[in-house]
């Protein structure tokens, strides 16, 4: 059996995701193939809550081609693209995948691999470090693009799926992961951002053109989970923090200067939007600030984020997915009460992720599903 892993968020599941899974099914038609969706849990890479809870999103994936949906847990799911991709590649390797499949606007696997190699070259890393010293207030993405253009005379891809594809390829090379990359060219204009905006606005006519019919029907009965529903908790966390505390220097993806800027802004801000707008600078984008805010509130340290993921959680499976699951020795949490089954390291990481989920639940106004979605049980 060939095993293909897809690192994903499905936030929400749209027609582009449907096409990718369909393309994989077509590519392996007639072969014994398993498609695993390694999906972000209740937090996503842009430093935000997932718009719908993880089990509902897992059900979407199972209905549209995945055999098995496992969780990329917090804090990795809510980290920057580089950490998000590295954690995903590490988990896919531990789960025995043969290939990693991802969509990219470029669609040129050779060009993407060449760019990833250049980003990992000592010459580029040294030039980037020197440019950071010269321009300490510059945002990372444009600074990196500037250095790449100066060294290679080419523009670095800036479209979101291309950029994430590069992070997957870099992670594979750094980890020497035995994963064969499979690039699926993006064909449609659908985007998760457009679907989220339509969902938030209640524009179900627009939404129906972006997502499959069953997903549109689910979204029509649901309410989006958004960070602003927890704005008082965020503001209180910053206002009450001790600026002299040691924890300021340990927070992941959040230099102490940014946290102090956030605290100063929180003293007068009356909403989350106001906090984000006033704290933003050329160096710190809204996504970076949201990640810092979540890391501070939930206690994500640099040490925790630097360690590779040591467990995953079952979110959903069909019969083939359950059979494959039974062959794995890597820690896969299939139900509650398994905190101590795999030892103290897994117990600590699992408890941390569960704590983050309890925070998310305070903003979630949808019906709760607290167990994996299993298809074909008893058949």
Can you walk me through this structure?
There is one protein chain. The protein has 3 domains: 2-106 and 163-225 and 307-374, Rossmann fold (3-Layer(aba) Sandwich), CATH 3.40.50; 110-158, no CATH class; 227-304, no CATH class. The strands form 2 sheets. Strands 1, 2, 5, 6, 7, 8, 9 and 10 form an 8-stranded mixed beta sheet that branches. The chain is of the alpha/beta class and 379 residues long. Helix 4 (109-120) crosses helix 7 (160-175) and helix 11 crosses helix 14 (286-298). Helix content is 49%, strand content 12%.
Structural class assignment: alpha/beta
Distance between the termini: 21 Å
The top level CATH class name of the largest domain = Alpha Beta
Give the SSE order as H and E letters: EHEEEHEHEHHHHEHHHHHHHHEHEHE
Provide mean pLDDT, rounded: 93
Total domain modules: 3
CATH superfamily of the largest domain: HUPs
User: Which overall shape is indicated by the principal axes computed on the Cα atoms?
Assistant: globular
The helix content is 40-55%
Low-confidence stretches: none
Per CATH, the architecture of the largest domain is 3-Layer(aba) Sandwich
β content, as a range? 5-15%
Q: Radius of gyration over alpha carbons?
A: 21 Å
Total of helices: 17
């Amino acid at each position: 059996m060939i095993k293909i892993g897809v690192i994903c968020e499905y936030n929400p599941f749209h027609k582009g995701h449907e096409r990718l899974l369909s393309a994989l099914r077509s590519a392996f038609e007639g072969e014994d193939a398993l498609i695993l969706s390694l999906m972000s849990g209740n937090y996503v890479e842009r430093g935000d809550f997932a718009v719908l809870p993880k089990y509902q999103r897992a059900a979407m994936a199972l209905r549209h081609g995945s055999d098995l949906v496992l969780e990329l847990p917090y804090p990795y799911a809510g980290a920057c693209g580089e950490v998000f991709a590295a954690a995903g590649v590490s988990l896919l390797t531990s789960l025995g995948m043969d290939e990693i499949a991802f969509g990219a606007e470029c669609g040129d696997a050779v060009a993407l691999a060449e760019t990833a190699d250049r980003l990992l070259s000592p010459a580029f890393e040294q030039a980037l470090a020197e440019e950071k010293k010269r321009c300490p207030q510059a945002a990372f993405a444009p600074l990196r693009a500037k250095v790449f253009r100066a060294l290679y005379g080419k523009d670095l891809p800036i479209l979101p799926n291309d950029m994430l594809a590069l992070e997957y390829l870099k992670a594979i090379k750094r980890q020497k992961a035995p994963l064969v990359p499979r690039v699926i060219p993006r064909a449609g204009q659908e985007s998760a951002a457009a679907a989220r905006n339509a969902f938030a606005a209640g524009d179900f006519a627009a939404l129906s053109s972006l997502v499959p019919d069953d997903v549109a029907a689910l979204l029509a009965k649901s309410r989006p989970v958004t960070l602003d529903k927890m704005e008082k908790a965020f503001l209180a966390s910053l206002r009450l923090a001790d600026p002299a505390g040691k924890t300021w220097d340990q927070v992941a993806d959040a230099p102490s200067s940014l946290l102090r800027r956030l605290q100063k802004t929180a003293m007068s801000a009356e909403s989350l939007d106001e906090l984000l707008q006033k704290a933003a600078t050329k160096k710190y984008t809204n996504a970076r600030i949201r990640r810092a805010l979540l890391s501070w509130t939930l206690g994500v340290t640099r040490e925790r984020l630097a360690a590779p993921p040591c467990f995953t959680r079952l979110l959903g499976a069909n019969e083939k997915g359950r059979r494959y699951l039974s062959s794995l020795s890597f820690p896969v949490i299939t139900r509650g009460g398994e905190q101590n089954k795999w030892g103290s390291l897994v117990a600590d990481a699992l408890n941390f992720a569960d704590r983050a989920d309890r925070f998310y639940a305070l903003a979630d106004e949808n019906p709760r599903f607290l167990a994996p979605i299993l298809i074909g049980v008893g058949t």
